[in-house]
Amino acid sequence: MKKAKRILFMHFGIVLLSVGVYFFKIPNGFSTGGVTGVGTILGALTPISSGIWIWVLNIALLVVGFAVFGRKTGFKTVYCSMMYSALIYLFEYFVPLKSPLSNQPLLELVYAMLLTSVGSAMIFNSGASSGGTDIVALILKQYSGIDVGKALLCVDFVVAASAFFVFDVTAGLFSLLGLFAKAFLVDSVIESFNTCKYFIVITTRPEEISQYIINGLHHGVTTSKAIGEYTHEEKTMIHTVCKRAEAIKLREKIREIDPKAFTVITTSSEIIGRGFRSV
Length: 279
Hints:
Elements: H1 2-28, H2 34-45, H3 50-69, H4 75-94, H5 105-125, H6 133-144, H7 148-161, H8 163-166, H9 169-193, E1 196-203, H10 206-216, E2 222-227, E3 234-243, H11 244-257, E4 262-268
Antiparallel strand pairs: 1-3, 1-4, 2-3
Helix pairs in contact: 1-4, 1-5, 2-3, 2-7, 3-4, 3-6, 5-9, 6-7, 7-9, 10-11
């Protein structure tokens, strides 16, 4: 069930990414980096469509990736890259666009960045990637020692800046704005998908609270004895982690079982272990 959910999540991410690129990025000339940016620019300079260029460039980069990294390139990355390219090509064939959907470029940039950022984050969260300039960045790192994030930003910046010369100043400015927005959005969306709540509960009724967490929420519990320096009263400290939706139930249950319990709830996006993310 979990594997099926992850596969569905990955495919939905591919669709969102493709819709954002084809319906909002390409018609406006938003080349915010990556293979889509290069494909958008080449589509404007040549009689070959952007969709075909994106497909060709992704295949070329995957071949280079296999040549340099071998099987480390990963089946999921190959699959997502090809599916994403194929969807854009199908959109071009069945829903041809001659101009942007509206006369509001800023609004279209917002949708372009939201859809592609959420789509990319969903793909990354499924343990895959859409390929493209990620492979270029990894190659630069291997042969030059440059940090992957910096290498990717350098590659994307050059692509985005090209919009000034291929399209116009407006498209160039929007492309650079989109590039910087993407850098923050993807990380933020990935973190929101993985957000969990860490509970520290200091209580005199640990058995009831622990049983609810174990049997009701199906999560583990760690307990330790705690002594308050002010009252010198011995209590039990409960540690547990749960999903964001479960946190509300647990908070209410703690209040119901022990109204005097002292509870600290913190947010984390990196919980690794059984029931959460694998290493």
